[in-house]
Amino acid sequence: MPRKKGSFEKVMEHFNEAWNVICDYCRKSITDVAYNTWISKIEPVGMDFDKSEAVLLVPNDFHRQTLERCYKVLLNEAFEAVFGTAINVVFTVPEDNPVEEIVSDDTIDNGYEYTFDTFIVGNSNKFAHAACLAVAQNPSKAYNPLFLYGNSGLGKTHLLYAIGNEIKKNDSSKSICYVKGDDFTNELIESLHRATMSEFRQKYRHSDVLLVDDVQFIGGKESTQEEFFHTFETLYLAQKQIILTSDRPPKEIKTLDDRLRGRFEMGLIADIQPPDIETRIAIIKRKAELMNIEIPNDVCEYIANNVKSNIRQLEGTVKKIKAKNNLDGERPSIKSVQNIIADILNNDTPPEVTVERIIDEVARTFNVNADDLRSSNNRSAYISGPRQVAIYVINELTTLTQESIGKEFGGRDHSTIKYAIDTTTKKMKKDSKLRSIVEDIIKNCSND
φ, ψ for residue 151 (rounded to 5)? Predict the structure, then answer.
């Protein structure tokens, strides 16, 4: 029911505040998969009340077409509910705005461009950097595919975007497609559900450059791997550039299809290690320069000695120093950054693994519906096996009692939960493929 124009509208001083409410409205009306695949990728650009128009930025033309066809009515309804008057939604893509290059759905929230110029090269990443630069300067002729791997927060995504930005700068006609491994699965599921596979394939198989972040998340998902294999083959045979990132090398993605593993390994594989102290100091100084704040050498060294394994943490520390400097105007000192570092390290610990996250990952892996896994009514063999896996993983990764786990699955009793755990344990001992699938689910759920 649309909300009448009144006090609520008055408090909407910023479009972004209104957008959060609009997203909540949409989330309640569609499935989680649909929301995460299509609505969550939208960025609000601006409002023109004279034209009764809202402009929204979406990642690419395929995304725009799908929103126009399937979700525009919902979005118009949500805007009217929030603003109390009819608002027409207009979608724009990066190509419509020449100052935009690649739009990341892994938000670039620190204001830095992901380019080679802003990437600090050190002993831990110089090989990967050189390989990426070669690919950017000579797409599909240097290394194809290029596979980058390393722990979270070491710069894989930065290099991925740097390649895309450099290629786009050198040839603006190039079609560059970025996707995360789990989003590829979500889009595939949604396209199958809505019978829009031709558009899905058009998006991925007709790109000049395919950038896939966290490709490990397609492991264990048979239909996803089948589709990705054909996408890979189509692009490779057409001499299009493919760049992949992962938290581990192909041989350690145990649930990866052998055909895909072979394809991933036939190009160049480059790892990225945590930066050494000299590189960490250089990163801090570079980020400070970009943020227009001076950090004394002794403070840079102190930060580098205490924030060691994650570049995002270094960026976050500099960002907080800048914010504190804006508030009190004091010159950064070792004493003033101690609490900032403590906060950064505490906030950057991996989030607690939730039941919802586990069930969603199991559902994606086995290509089933998450609601069916929870349901007490669906007892089909097609669902019961994945459900037992979900119960096993929840028991492994959370502190929930078996009684509490039962409540998450339609009120099943303790004995049923115990049976599911015992059954999965026995199956894993006999079935190495299932064991690998479960191990990958656990690793993916635990990945920050």
Answer: -65, 165
129-150 tens-digit pLDDT: 999 999 999 998 889 999 999 8
Burial string for 166-186 (b: 16+ CB within 10 Å, else e) reads: bbbeeeeebebbbbbbbbbbb
How many C-beta neighbours within 10 Å does residue 432 have? 10
The number of beta carbons lying within 10 Å of the beta carbon of residue 338 is: 12
Average pLDDT over every residue of 337-343? 83
The sheet with strand 43-48 has its strands ordered as: 43-48, 53-57, 88-92
Q: Residue 187, by phi and psi: left (phi above 0), alpha (psi -120 to 50) or beta?
A: alpha
8 A C-beta contact, residue 123 and residue 279? yes
pTM of the predicted protein model: 0.64
What is d(CA 395, CA 362) in angstroms, rounded to the nearest whole number?
14
Residue span(s) of the chain under CATH 1.10.8.60 come to 277-347
**Is 232 or 446 the better-scoring residue by pLDDT?**
232
126-271 CATH choice from 3.40.50.450, 3.50.50.60, 3.40.50.300, 3.40.50.1370: 3.40.50.300
Tokens representing 348? Answer: 């950057």
Q: How far apart are the C-alpha atoms of 162 and 155, rounded to whole Å? A: 10
Average pLDDT over residues 2-29: 63
Res 211: pLDDT: 93
Q: Which residues pair with 393 in a beta bridge?
A: none
CB 69 within 8 Å of CB 56:
no
Give the CATH number of domain 277-347. Answer: 1.10.8.60
pLDDT at 103 over 60: no
**Smallest Cα–Cα separation from 264: which of 150, 145, 179, 163?**
145
pLDDT in tens, 385-421: 999 999 999 988 887 888 889 988 988 888 899 999 9
Cα separation, 304 vs 274, whole angstroms: 12
For domain 355-446, give the fold: Chromosomal Replication Initiator Protein Dnaa; Chain: A; (1.10.1750)
